[in-house]
Specification:
This protein is an all-alpha fold. Helices cover 66% and strands 0% of the residues. The chain contains 13 helices and no strands. The longest helix is centred in the first third of the chain and has 29 residues, at 98-126. The relative contact order is 0.14. It binds iron/sulfur cluster (SF4) (2 copies). Residues 27, 30-31, 33, 55-61, 77-78, 81 line the site of one iron/sulfur cluster.
Length: 369
């Protein structure tokens, strides 16, 4: 009878399971986790953190595994790695403790933030300058910049700080362009979400493959980038060309923003649906609510942006603008502590994996030479 220690930390439990996988090796072609693990004999805490962040919870290995419950090994690798992942993001987050609060009370916190910030913006619109056109008749451009610049820069600084902690723990080496290029290409194509056999995930369909999770992530990823490009193009038009908002339907900000908003809403809706269909026991159950809150916040950002476009010139602009700015600001402020941060750690883990592959290729060449 396998003697499982009664209380293991998340890292110890993941190590126990990975060591069993390392003896079994059945899932070698499933994802980047297994080739990375199978090159090692022992796993430090940093190795486990790196493997956990390479895993994208497709669940293929769980449904293929002959050692899941009721087997005495009780393997549930997707969950074990998800627990380590979440624990690592909480540990690396700065200021410490914020991530734990968001993950445990994400829905309530998001709602409070969106409504609180929206109410503040609403109050500001009442005190708005009489001058200004379009959105700036409700909230001056300088007020928007004064609020959004720090709200964007602070989370960015917190994420960089967290990534430095991650890089130290996983033993990352000096990053060179080939590592970065390999990681960014994999991330942009969401290559790993296509699964080992390029048939997709087993996330919501048990032992059946599906591409829907990859499609939902693609929609959210490109939707977010298009919305970001839309806002950036508006800033360039404003400052460089002296063309303030509002913009016509055929302007660059709207040509980027409308499809971006539609993709963001469609992707978020599909992600929520898939999450509701999936088996919660194969993920980190303690953060399920926080993850749902994050996806809902993402969808709300796109939805209120589209509604704002549609309401241009009507009396609904002021309340919708307040709500949209509330959602955007809440989204930015919670980024280092919500599921959004996983994108940054995922890219970092891919960079580290590219370094590992380069190193093992180099040692193979040395052996054969
Ligand atoms: S998940 Fe199960 S089947 Fe896959 S490598 Fe690990 S022990 Fe083997
Ligand atoms: S859940 Fe998917 S990505 Fe994670 S280890 Fe298993 S096969 Fe790999």
């Amino acid at each position: 009878m396998y003697d499982q220690p009664p209380t293991l930390t998340a890292t110890e439990e993941a190590r126990r399971q990975i060591e069993i996988c390392n003896a079994c090796r059945y899932c070698e072609g499933y994802c980047a986790v297994f080739p990375s693990a199978f090159g090692q004999r022992a796993f430090s805490d940093g190795d486990i953190t790196q493997l956990a962040n390479l895993c994208h919870n497709c669940r293929g290995c769980y449904y293929a595994c002959q050692y899941t419950d009721p087997h005495e090994f009780a393997l549930n690798l997707p969950r074990a790695l998800a627990e380590v992942r979440v624990e690592s993001w909480e540990r690396f987050a700065w200021p410490s403790g914020f991530a734990r609060v968001f993950q445990s009370s994400g829905a309530a916190l998001s709602l409070m933030l969106v409504l609180g910030i929206a109410a503040t913006f609403w109050a500001l619109t009442v005190l708005a300058p009489a001058s200004g056109e379009g959105f700036y008749a409700y909230l001056s451009h300088s007020a928007m910049v004064a609020i959004f610049a720090p709200a964007f820069l602070f989370p960015l600084g917190a994420i960089v700080f967290g990534l430095r902690r991650y890089w130290t723990e996983v033993g990352g080496e000096r990053v060179r362009w080939p590592h970065m290029k390999a990681a960014l290409l994999d991330a942009a194509r969401l290559k790993n979400l296509s699964g080992g056999a390029a048939k997709g995930c087993n996330f919501e369909k048990g032992d059946r493959y599906s591409q829907r999770r990859r499609q939902a992530h693609q929609a959210v990823f490109w939707g977010f980038l298009l919305c970001f490009a839309s806002t950036s193009s508006g800033t360039v038009l404003h400052y460089v060309f002296g063309m303030p908002a509002p913009y016509s339907l055929l302007s660059v900000p709207k040509l980027l923003g409308i499809p971006g908003g539609i993709l963001l809403v469609a992707g978020s809706t599909l992600l929520i649906k898939l999450k509701l269909q999936a088996d919660q026991r194969l993920g980190a159950t303690s953060v399920w609510g926080g993850e749902m809150a994050f996806v809902a916040l993402l969808g709300l950002t796109g939805l209120t942006g589209l509604a704002l476009y549609a309401a241009t010139g009507t009396a609904l602009v002021a309340p919708l603008l307040s709500l949209h700015l509330g959602a955007v600001l809440a989204f930015f402020l919670t980024t280092p502590y919500s599921k959004m941060v996983h994108g940054f750690y995922r890219v970092a883990s891919l960079v580290r994996d590219a370094q590992r592959k380069e190193r093992s290729k180099g040692s193979c060449q040395q052996d054969s030479g």
